Every structure is written in structure tokens, then in C-alpha cells.
């Protein structure tokens, strides 16, 4: 696949197209790079890319920037810090805006990362927006998650320890030439002492390359995540049919205090969706676009209420094939839906009266 072909395909996936059915799984490592604003994540990714390129590795980068709440636009400035790689055919950089998505990622960030892994890249770096305590979506998708911190955070380390600090497979104290690096490392070690897992800590100065080789060596020794049988399934969301998003949302946003993170229109399903985060899962309110849509027909027959339950599955194609072989009825073939995920429905007649949606993790 040429660079132009890959860029064209990446644009299609970012705009909601499904990943190619014949795309290989790939052997590359998906590395999440996350941490608070100003930690130097982009500069560290740039330095790691240079280190891996010196050893002949092919690198893809998915850099996520926040969208403006007022204009909807994004500066996409992360790639500016990676200019030295722009002419290197062994490096593919894709910047994208969050477009209102919560969790530190854009809705199709992970679909793009799987595209790049399938295209043969050895490492796929997914750099999140600057995150706080609860933006931990990257940990559910990346093979390894690097949490980047900086000296001088002080009480901020304590403030975020219950969220993003708990997802780290590796800690990188960047800008470690600044005063306070040792104190920051001690605070991380104190937090880790409360648990049982060993999480390595590296000190780096991305601008000079200090410590980058050691961090790269640690990443090179990691393997793709192997999904355990007990991790094959997880609740993704509950789909609730409503006649009007504007009428239904106040109950969640005002009375329950659960604001919607994003709204989206899925034309081929003829539905508008409001996504309300609930921990690691979410509620999706579904409003029909016209009277011929599946949600409109559901409302006409049963009225507002629970429409479907969605499960995340590690290998959607394998599960779909297993269900077909057992005689279960699937509704159509796997395709792209809201949030950029690939999904297929299982008919209620095969599932005890419940409409199940299966989504690829």
C-alpha cells in the first residue's frame, strides 16, 4: 500500500468508513502516550520516533488535538513538533480533532491505529489530548500505555492518582532536567507501593534525547496485548429509543447530572445519537431521523425505552462466524457505526427477545 493510498484510506476511516475486510491484524505495537497538558507528549513521541527509525522500525502516529468548543475547529499543532519526520516514508503522521468526543481520544482514533498496524507499521503511537483524572479511554485500546508526567506537579500527582495514574504500564517523567524530578519519582513510587503491579519509571528529556533510548528499549520489549477469555466481553453501552433528544436529555443532564459528551448523526441508520458516559460504558439516546427508520418503527410498536444492549468483543469476525455456525440469526454484516466502531446486531429471536449489538474492541 502506497503512502497516498494509506492517506486516502485513513481519511475514509476517520469519516466513518469500516476498516477493509481483508486488512491483516498486523504485529505492530499500539502505544498510548497520555498525560496532563504541557507534559511534552508530542516532543517525546517525536524523540521516540527518531530513536526507532535509527533502528529501521516503521512508525505511525495518531496525534489527537482538542476541538474548540466555540468554533469546532482544532489547531492540530502536535504534528508541528514532528516536522523533522515529514519527508520520511517510514513515518506516517495523522493528526485529528476530538470533535467533541470525551476520554482523550477522537471517536475513530483507535480504528486508525488498527489500520496502521494492519498496514505493517512496527509501532503505532496514539497521543491523547492533555488529560486529567478520568480520561482513561486509551488504556482499553492500547497494548501498552505510557503516562507522561513532569517535575513540579506537586499535589497534582495526588489529584490525578485515582484515574489516569492507575492505567500506566510505564511512567515517563519528562523534562527531568528540571528541579523536582526526584520528588516526582518518589511520589509515583509511593503511589505504586499501595498496589501489587510493578510499573517501571523512566526519566526523559525529550528535547535532548536523554533517557529516550532506555524508554524505547522498554517499549521494544513489550508484546501485543493478548485478550484473556474473561476479557473478551465487556458492556459497551445501552441504546435507549427516544422521540426527541432535546426532550429526553434534561432528565440525564439536569436531574441526574450526567452531561452528554457528544452528539452524532448516523445517516445509514437514520438516527441521531447522544452519548452519555457512565464510567467505562455509556448510554446512547437514539432519536429517529424519519418515520421509516428502525428506531421510529420500534417507537411506534413499543414506545420509548431500552432498544438494545451493546457488548464489546475482542474478535468480532470470529464471534460472528461462531454465532452463524450455531444457527443464530445476525442482522446484516459487520459495518461502521456511531463512534467509528464496527458492529453487527444479533436478532432478538436468537437471543431470548433481546436485541444485542456486538462491537469490535
**How far apart lie the N and C ends?**
25 Å
**How large a portion of the residues is in β-strands, by DSSP E?**
25-35%
Instruction: Report the count of strand segments.
Output: 15
Shape summary: globular
Radius of gyration: 21 Å
* Percentage of residues in helical conformation: 25-40%
The major sheet is characterized as: 8 strands, mixed
Order of helices and strands: HEHEEHEEHEHEHEHEEEHEHEEE
CATH architecture label name of the largest domain: 3-Layer(aba) Sandwich
User: Structurally, how many domains make up the residues?
Assistant: 2
Which blocks of ≥5 consecutive residues have pLDDT under 50? 67-75, 227-231
Strand arrangement across the biggest beta sheet: 9-10-11-8-12-15-14-13
Mean pLDDT: 83
CATH topology description of the largest domain: Rossmann fold
CATH class of the largest domain: Alpha Beta
Number of helices: 9
> Structural class given helices, strands, pairing?
alpha/beta
The CATH H-level superfamily of the largest domain is P-loop containing nucleotide triphosphate hydrolases
What does this structure look like?
It is a single chain. The chain is α/β, with parallel strands linked by helices. The protein folds into two domains: 218 residues, 3-Layer(aba) Sandwich (Rossmann fold), CATH 3.40.50; 132 residues, 2,3-Dihydroxybiphenyl 1,2-Dioxygenase, domain 1 (Roll). It is 25% helix and 26% strand. It has nine helices and 15 strands. It has an eight-stranded mixed beta sheet with strand order 9-10-11-8-12-15-14-13. A seven-stranded parallel beta sheet has the order 3-2-4-1-5-6-7, sandwiched between helices. A hairpin with a 5-residue loop joins strand 13 and strand 14. Helix 1 runs antiparallel to helix 3. The chain is globular, with a radius of gyration of 21 Å.
Amino acid at each position: 500500500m502506497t503512502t497516498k493510498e494509506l492517506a486516502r484510506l485513513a481519511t475514509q476511516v476517520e469519516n466513518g468508513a469500516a476498516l477493509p475486510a481483508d486488512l491483516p491484524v498486523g504485529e505492530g505495537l499500539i502505544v498510548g502516550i497520555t498525560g496532563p497538558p504541557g507534559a511534552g507528549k508530542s516532543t517525546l513521541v517525536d524523540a521516540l520516533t527518531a530513536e526507532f527509525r535509527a533502528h529501521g522500525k516503521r512508525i505511525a502516529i495518531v496525534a489527537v488535538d482538542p476541538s474548540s468548543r466555540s468554533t469546532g475547529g482544532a489547531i492540530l499543532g502536535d504534528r508541528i513538533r514532528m516536522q523533522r519526520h515529514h519527508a520520511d516514508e517510514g513515518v506516517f503522521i495523522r493528526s485529528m480533532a476530538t470533535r467533541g468526543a470525551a476520554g482523550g481520544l477522537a471517536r475513530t482514533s483507535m480504528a486508525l491505529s488498527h489500520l496502521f498496524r494492519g498496514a505493517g507499521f512496527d509501532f503505532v503511537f496514539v497521543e491523547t489530548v492533555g488529560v486529567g483524572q478520568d480520561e482513561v479511554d486509551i488504556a482499553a485500546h492500547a497494548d501498552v500505555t505510557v503516562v507522561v508526567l513532569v517535575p513540579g506537579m506537586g499535589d497534582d500527582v495526588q489529584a490525578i492518582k485515582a484515574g489516569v495514574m492507575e492505567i500506566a504500564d510505564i511512567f515517563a517523567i519528562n523534562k527531568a532536567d528540571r528541579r523536582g524530578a526526584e520528588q516526582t519519582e518518589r511520589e509515583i513510587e509511593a503511589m505504586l507501593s499501595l498496589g501489587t503491579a510493578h510499573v517501571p519509571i523512566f526519566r526523559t528529556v525529550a528535547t535532548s534525547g536523554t533517557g529516550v533510548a532506555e524508554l524505547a528499549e522498554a517499549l521494544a520489549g513489550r508484546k501485543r496485548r493478548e485478550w484473556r477469555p474473561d476479557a473478551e466481553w465487556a458492556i459497551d453501552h445501552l441504546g435507549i429509543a427516544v422521540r426527541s433528544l432535546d426532550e429526553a436529555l434534561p432528565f440525564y443532564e439536569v436531574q441526574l447530572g450526567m452531561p452528554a459528551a457528544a452528539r452524532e448523526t448516523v445517516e445509514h441508520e437514520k438516527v441521531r445519537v447522544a452519548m452519555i458516559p457512565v464510567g467505562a460504558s455509556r448510554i446512547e439516546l437514539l432519536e429517529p431521523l424519519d418515520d421509516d427508520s428502525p428506531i421510529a418503527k420500534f417507537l411506534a410498536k413499543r414506545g420509548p425505552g431500552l432498544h438494545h444492549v451493546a457488548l464489546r468483543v475482542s474478535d468480532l469476525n470470529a464471534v460472528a462466524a461462531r454465532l452463524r455456525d450455531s444457527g443464530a440469526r445476525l442482522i446484516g454484516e459487520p459495518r461502521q457505526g456511531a463512534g467509528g466502531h464496527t458492529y453487527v446486531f444479533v436478532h432478538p429471536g436468537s437471543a431470548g427477545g433481546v436485541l444485542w449489538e456486538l462491537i469490535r474492541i
